[in-house]
């Protein structure tokens, strides 16, 4: 009887030892020591807490020199809800793991929201070049807007005003680009400012070429002339095609051809001259030269102020000189560009620069053209607008394969410029005079909730450790390493002891040895000292003892 009772009590003791808290909430396996081994996506002593999705951290401490942005819960830009496993992201960030920087207001339905990778892969830059951006940590994380013409701004909330030729600068010429093509098959498109024309077959006539080019939103009108008027664009006997831009002024970016496979297979040739020097000869031997445009292409033709809200020029009417919409050639017309002198205060014409006070007191008036040359920090036809600071872009087209964020833009393409004050109005989550910094988590004016320090990626690297010991890791020390472009721009919190979270808003619980583990051993380190005099210190995880004798 006593033996049976002992076996029974031993059984109860074994059951007690192997009983896990809350039976692991049916989200784990209970081992013989009474510990839960949780299923994926669960954690905690009783597997009651959900794990949130991980993504490449927006900011973190480097794990080696120039190595950072490791996988982190909620990408270090959100707090995990342990009940449902969903991240609550910092304003402006989205995705299941807060891994994306959203397009502001989804580009206001006036553009396409692209990741950096897709922007590079699906579009071209203003010179119609194409580069890749697939290997950098931010290639799928930072998103931005490609605005539909004429929308503009980092969020496409503004509208471009018409540009035009200054009516008081005579003896200027339109741009003329030349096409020299020879092929027996296929077709091609011509890119202008990164936007493709309609497809042009090798048998196209002048009218077809004109229609294809005018399908590009940034091209209003072109005049297309064949040196052999009854020929085709790619006839074998050379036919030089002249494309005169009659409504796009100034020196322009060249047309860039992209050939289809049939054109390539035919062994055809297609050349463009847009430099004002290169000449092409046609079948008669006559040579033709391209012409660089010399007209101005300035906002409101330098004779009005642009209202970016609606993209309308407010033409100047100061000092008795009144300007209006032109045809691009100094006469009245529909361009909306203020390039027409409606009336002037003097019979002989305009004799003063714009502004109630010439050039608004912020520039010098050129007597020959009555153009204002603005002082530093000012712009506009009357020098009445204040420039905002520029910074390296957060979102923009790569400057080479796998190289981005190097170009400069007003407010770093992450804010709008208030031209009355010359100050950038940054989108939430960014700050700096040019919106050049990504902010730390926490309320505005109280980064890291007062429980940590807001640091750049370069500064965070200085706090890297291995098992508590300091390292010599650096981040961004090489200015030619494009992979660490963010070293002084992306900021993150380094929390005080006892706090955690991307914004240092969470209090850490004490840590200790698991009472349900067995056969553990405490670490023992042995020190042997042999000396006749002097003293020394001991350090452990960057803490140092007083001098020991």
UniProtKB/TrEMBL annotation:
InterPro entries: EGF (IPR000742), EGF_extracell (IPR013111), MEGF/SIB (IPR052108). Keywords: Disulfide bond, EGF-like domain, Signal. Residues 16-48, 66-99, 349-384, 399-436 form the EGF-like domain. PROSITE patterns: EGF_1, EGF_2, EGF_3, PROKAR_LIPOPROTEIN. Transmembrane segments: none annotated. Residues 1-18 form the signal peptide. Disulfide bonds join 20-30, 38-47, 89-98, 374-383, 426-435. SMART domains: EGF. PANTHER family: MULTIPLE EPIDERMAL GROWTH FACTOR-LIKE DOMAINS PROTEIN, PROTEIN DRAPER. This is EGF-like domain-containing protein. The lineage of its organism: Eukaryota, Sar, Stramenopiles, Ochrophyta, Chrysophyceae.
